[in-house]
Amino acid sequence: SSLKNLETSANQIINGELEKELDITAKDEIGALALAFNNMLKRIKEITNVAQNISTGNFQVDFNEKGKTDRLGLSLKGKIRKHQNINLISKKIAEGDYQSKIEIESENYDLSKSINQMTQFLHDNQVQSENEKWFKDGQYQLNEKVRGEIDLSVLSNQVITFLTKYLDAKIGLIYVTDTDENLTLLSSYVYEQRKR
């Protein structure tokens, strides 16, 4: 009977069997129920197909929810959007863009938090590495400037000129102390001593 076919098909769906649609062509309430049942089965197949794509890492699937009350569809679409965003940010990170962050919509979404923490760690390491390189380059260049036997005033001029430019400072001064611990200006860069 038609009702028995509906019951059998419902039990098959419960067990994950989604291949067989109902073949009921009656034009009464049972036929209308069978048509609604087949439409429900098509929707379940569509959602299952999307879920299978997601489970294999394919988030480039096209999926539309059926409206504002379609909680499963909205959840699935949200999950797809989140993973597409994570994929996009991960690609940027792989290319060295450590400024990108994943928007965390829920405190329970640990993957976003972990990726953001990793990105911050990589960014901090990059900054530290660049600072260390800048420091070492400066040391090397300064060593090159002071190499050899050079008069103290020439040496101090070379050192303050280099340091002021390297540090991007506006002015630079080098003072020396005498035996009475009085300071005397030895060298300056972009600085003129005022007469008193």
Write structural notes for this entry:
The protein is mostly helical and 196 residues long. It is 59% helix and 7% strand. The chain has helices at residues 2-14, 29-55, 71-94, 110-146, 152-166; strands at residues 172-177, 183-189. Strands 1-2 form a two-stranded antiparallel sheet. Strand 1 (172-177) and strand 2 form a beta hairpin. Helix 1 (2-14) runs parallel beside helix 2 (29-55) and helix 4 runs antiparallel to helix 5. It is rod-shaped and about 115 Å long. The mean pLDDT is 84.
State the gist of this model.
Helix content is 59%, strand content 7%. It has helices at residues 2-14, 29-55, 71-94, 110-146, 152-166; strands at 172-177, 183-189.
| Mean pLDDT across residues | 84
Low-confidence stretches: none
Number of strands: 2
Strand content: 5-15%
Give short descriptive properties of this protein.
mainly alpha, 5 helices, 59% helix, 196 residues
